[in-house]
Design brief:
The complex is a heterodimer of chains A (569) and B (841). In chain A, 49% of the residues lie in helices and 13% in strands. Chain A is an alpha/beta fold. Chain A has a seven-stranded mixed beta sheet with strand order 6-7-14-13-9-8-12, sandwiched between helices. In chain A, helix 15 packs across helix 16. By secondary structure, chain B is of the alpha+beta class. Among the domains of chain B are: 31-211, 7 Propeller (Methylamine Dehydrogenase, Chain H), CATH 2.130.10; 331-413, no CATH class; 782-840, no CATH class. In chain B, helix 3 (345-357) packs antiparallel against helix 4 and helix 28 packs antiparallel against helix 29 (771-778). Chain B starts with 7 loop residues before the first strand and ends with a helix. Classes of the chains: A alpha/beta (569), B alpha+beta (841). The interface between A and B is large, with 43 and 44 residues.
Amino acid sequence: MAFPHRPDAPELPDFSMLKRLARDQLIYLLEQLPGKKDLFIEADLMSPLDRIANVSILKQHEVDKLYKVENKPALSSSEQLCFLVRPRIKNMRYIANLVNADKLAGRTRKYKVIFSPQKFYACEMVLEEEGIYGDVSCDEWAFSLLPLDVDLLSMELPEFFRDYFLEGDQRWINTVAQALHLLSTLYGSFPNCYGIGRCAKMSYELWRKLEEEEDGETKGRRPEIGHIFLLDRDMDFVTALCSQVVYEGLVDDTFRIKCGSVDFGPEVTSSDKSLKVLLNAEDKVFNEIRNEHFSNVFGFLSQKARNLQAQYDRRRGMDIKQMKNFVSQELKGLKQEHRLLSLHIGACESIMKKKTKQDFQELIKTEHALLEGFSIRESTSYIEEHIDRQVSPIESLRLMCLLSITENGEPKRPKTDKAAGKITDAFSSLAKRSNFRAISKKLNLIPRVDGEYDLKVPRDMAYVFSGAYVPLSCRIIEQVLERRSWQGLDEVVRLLNCSEFAFTDMIKDDKASSESLRLILVVFLGGCTFSEISALRFLGREKGYRFIFLTTAVTNSARLMEAMSEVKA
Amino acid sequence: MDCYTANWNPLGDSAFYRKYELYSMDWDLKEELRDCLVAAAPYGGPIALLRNPWRKEKAASVRPVLDIYSASGVPLASLLWKSGPVVSLGWSAEEELLCVQEDGAVLVYGLHGDFRRHFSMGNEVLQNRVLDARIFHTEFGSGVAILTGAHRFTLSANVGDLKLRRMPEVPGLQSAPSCWTTLCQDRVAHILLAVGPDLYLLDHAACSAVIPPGLAPGVSSFLQMAVSFTYRHLALFTDTGYIWMGTASLKVDVGDMAMGLVSRVCPKHMCSRPRSKERAVVVAWERRLMVVGDAPESIQFVLDEDSYLVPELDGVRIFSRSTHEFLHEVPAASEEIFKIASMAPGALLLEAQKEYEKESQKADEYLREIQELGQLTQAVQQCIEAAGHEHQPEMQKSLLRAASFGKCFLDRFPPDSFVRMCQDLRVLNAVRDYHIGIPLTYRKYRYKQLTIQVLLDRLVLRRLYPLAIQICEYLRLPEVQGVSRILAHWACYKVQQKDVSDEDVARAINQKLGDTPGVSYSDIAARAYGCGRTELAIKLLEYEPRSGEQVPLLLKMKRSKLALSKAIESGDTDLVFTVLLHLKNELNRGDFFMTLRNQPMALSLYRQFCKHQELETLKDLYNQDDNHQELGSFHIRASYAAEERIEGRVAALQTAADAFYKAKNEFAAKATEDQMRLLRLQRRLEDELGGQFLDLSLHDTVTTLILGGHNKRAEQLARDFRIPDKRLWWLKLTALADLEDWEELEKFSKSKKSPIGYLPFVEICMKQHNKYEAKKYASRVGPEQKVKALLLVGDVAQAADVAIEHRNEAELSLVLSHCTGATDGATADKIQRARAQAQKK
């Protein structure tokens, strides 16, 4: 059922090194402030930090108490305060308030601010304006790459999307370049580079500059990863705006996967408490179903349950010795599997309850109609009804955006009184003239199917959207990799309004092994969805590649829309 | 061999001194040395002469001339002295010429007579004038010590980091001390001075009288004193004609003491020599030079001319109008080899090699002799070391040849020392050349502070770039330390050539430097800017690959706009920000905004910043650009974030609406106006009905009204805001179902034909689990959705009937999928039959 990799699939590089590196650096920074100290952590950094260093490691390095950076006065009594924050102005204000309050109270403490992944001049300036620049010491924790899974690296920078694509703020580009530089230092430079998008191009150029400035050591390294592909999110908003139907994507849409783990509530765990579950390749059950279309998952799980039962049942006929063997060797594994299985079955039930209602099917139908570009009138009235019923403003907005883009950015704005500001913002950023129809035709994104699309045996990447649509982003990547350049895709590039920003760069390197040439690093600038990941994993299996994903954050349609709406400060 | 030791002079039993010529000077001096102020830098450094000093009364109209020569007498610079009278000259460790003026001002010149800077030794010095001054060297750098007219001392231990120290007063000092010197002990500079028969040691805190141990009685005055190069040894010349020698600490350290009657005439120079088997001091008079040591005998030389002595680490340089000589103790290795009838292994090896060249069998005999004693290794080492101490390349060669010959008979002799010596000698010989004129000895080069880096610096200072580069290449120094550094220096020198055009200089520099790693174009540009050549600096910056380096300099040169575009090019937002803030302070607001306008990236960055820090500026920014759309959004935001009172919020929205009109965004303007109306209305509702209405959406407001039973008002609101019929129906439906007011719902459903059909009624009733009510509406559902509705209420059989009637395949399968188990068995059969029938047709 789960597709095995082809036997010749290349091995993935070991990314756990990145974790060790980040941990060592953090420890070093903490040691810079010897003695007991309280650590203030920004909420956004808590989950990533948890994946790098747990509380006991922090305690080992004399972190006394942990606080969350929030808009409340801190009650720390420690003589040394350490702040672990993103470089944001509001955090600087928080720190400044704290320090200035101490000053008023005539209290002197040591303060240290650790910026992750880097500090910005603007932050230091705010500290200066607030008059506390001399009181705090600043450091950088260059922790920009978190391996969420064996093939997924996340920068955990969800704000990248809003900052760059909506506000036009380019400050994270440097961070991306630094991250690429780190990868190329550790795993060798990438012999073949492709990219599309303004941000992709700028990041790439900045990274090359870094490499040139600091060449020497990296040059001799044998490249482990043969290709790198950089892609801006604004090349393909459509895919990201669609509802996901692949298991991992569905779990993300329904429960929100945060930093590689998910909180399953009581309705899933069938007990009275929630459970935090790490979702990655180590979870054997999950690993087999994550890339499956949801319609297959339940059947698979019940099959699995039967198998498990059979294995349990084997003990019936065992003698003492076999039993001993069974208990000592297999039982633990079986129990573990049992636990996971019941969790995922619970999750499935919960999803089914929410999603297999008629509403959801209608929604998917509408989305597919939009993608294919037929019965627009019905779709529009569906959206209107969606608004009329006040189902969810974010959802309505998402559908409107999808409508707008698939209809080439000619917004048929249904009049609405609600959240006018939100619409203006979302539309001004999304409803640029797109050429989705033409691109879709050119790249054959809507597969012509005769009869039922068999989701059990997928034929192409469209399976991640029930066979209705091949994700545009993944198709671009597939096409370019096939041609090893943008040659022959001029028309597509033009339709994407990206003529200046599509590039190919071959760095001559004979040392690249054939194994490494089948490893491809895909960099999504602005986030990618689990559906895209699943689609490319499928493509990899078909062609004997392995994809490695680097994203600024894992996103989905809801996150995308939320990022664009203004939050009340 | 015999003649080789001809210039050796024994001092005592164990040491020999030799004096040899370094250069014959052809500097064509018109004046006598004694008429000039002379300063010669140690480590074979340059010589400065200030002719026509003020001590002789001459016509004031004649300006004195300051000449600078290399150690070989090659003129480096000559300039007319236009400043005040100079008391003393001296070279700093960085080979800068320090000229101490009578008024306490110290003028600093470069090697090529270029004025660098000046500093003052303080007011006290200015008032009392300078009586005498010394430039001295410590491990921190070069210091200046001054004796003022008031017989007080002021000193600064490091002219690079000027800290003036006024030394304590010497009690009862009425006249100038007969002689004085600076000492450096425990990293602190002291002054030792002699007044009549007494010696005083001045440190920062106190003045203490000291008595040299073992000094012969009867001394009424000290005429001269000298300290060794390293401040370890001291020699005092008394009026009784004795020389006392001891450690500079003047502690009871007898045995360091020696006396010898020399002369009653005051010597001109004294240089003390440490670090040898025999302590010795070199004393010079008008025509006589003497080396005095522990031994009763001393070495005497006759001086043909007026000479000047320069103390060095391992000897004394003596130069006069015609020659430049070096006097030093013969090093141990040379002595071993060249001493008459020496049987040292090195000597034998040298002999063996000579015989070998003559193809004589004696070579073998000598070699055997050394080998029998097992001293061949030692012999080779001796020859290598001795080669280093020889001045003549010929002699160096023959010694090295001997060493290399000896090496052949050794199995494992590490080659480094030999190779290193060959390299060192090549370098040394090159810089000793007459044209270069840096007479360095091997010992100074290798054992003391003067490393290859310093040597290269000195060559660069003398603008001998080609030689420096050749040395780098010869020694295979890493580019960053060697060639690039020198090229950068060359470029810095090049930009100072004012007669060459900017283009030519920039091109020449780029041609030579190319992309040599480690060359910082920004440093060169900074130098160009320092010389006032801004245009050239900008041209040079073009070659700088790192934007981070370009920007700060451009800012400094007030090319902020160029800096901005460079910063943007770099993609480094921090850099852009730096420039932005700079621009913000530099330009007036209008110009600043105009600049931003042309730089979208900078603009958005600044906007981001303003959003958090300076909201007002943000508004101004939009105003400036006539960006009404953004301005509108800004006011909308303000209405929610900043304003508390309803009036304020409405006013902000009004401003926003105006802006939207200006931006021709009718939709946004209308929506904003609606929101204003809604706000006012909500306020009124709150006043009249109580409860929470503010900030609800229109939809929620109407819903709340219905839930509160204010149906009339709800209708009114819906009419006022022209809520579409469909929406209103949905709204009412949901609200009434929530209230479970089934009666009202039914009334509502019958009020007129539903614009949304009756399926939603069924759905909503089922949601509230009211099957009874649901069934009422199911019958009213239109034919298209009838099946769905029937299925919803669970009437599978009837659904099947309708589906069959419709002959709709999709509907049939839908019903079929709802058929469960035994109860619906009959229905399922019915459908199957209908299907079969349909297919037949």
